[in-house]
Amino acid sequence: MPNPKSYRKGKLTEKSSSFHGEKPSKTAATLRRPKTDPELLSFKNLGLSAPSLDGRPKMTKLLFNVTIQGSLGPVQVLMSPDMTVADLVAATVRQYLKEARRPILPTADPSAFDLHYSQFSLESLNEDEKLIALGSRNFFLCPRKSEDNDDLLASSSSSSCSTQAKENAKSSSGFSWFKFIEFRI
Fold this sequence. Notes:
By secondary structure, the protein is an alpha+beta fold. The protein has a domain at 62-146: Phosphatidylinositol 3-kinase Catalytic Subunit, Chain A, domain 1 (Ubiquitin-like (UB roll)), CATH 3.10.20. The protein is 25% helix and 12% strand. The protein has helices spanning 4-17, 26-29, 85-98, 150-153, 161-171; strands at residues 62-68, 75-79, 113-116, 138-143. Mean pLDDT is 75; it is low at 148-158.
């Protein structure tokens, strides 16, 4: 059995010989290279369509993050940019129910929900607007408060964010903050 120290010395001299200008052995010259596929980086394999007129590839799918009011994390939905806001709401509700997330939605009807840019946005997005024109991929979904689904949402502890803001605006007067200040003399 060879001595481990002598074995290491032999390997070191073989490796360092290439650095001193000696010709490499024949085994190094005949290394086989793997065959490459010229279509490896084609647009078909990346899931992209052919380049547009400006040279950039056209997007075929977009990943959207939609946070539903009361849920812990966003629902991720992969959709075509040509779809509308109504399609995104329907796909988000369908995915939320499929993943069996909590809290349970009061209804599975997508028309009972409004899509907003954020939880602080009071205006909901137009249902006929294209997703590519929105300019964002992160949205907030909250239940719509209307006369049709009041009884469906009554069991839910949270109400629509836009209706809460409207009710607060109606009930508050210009000096409503005075009632919180204690006057002492």
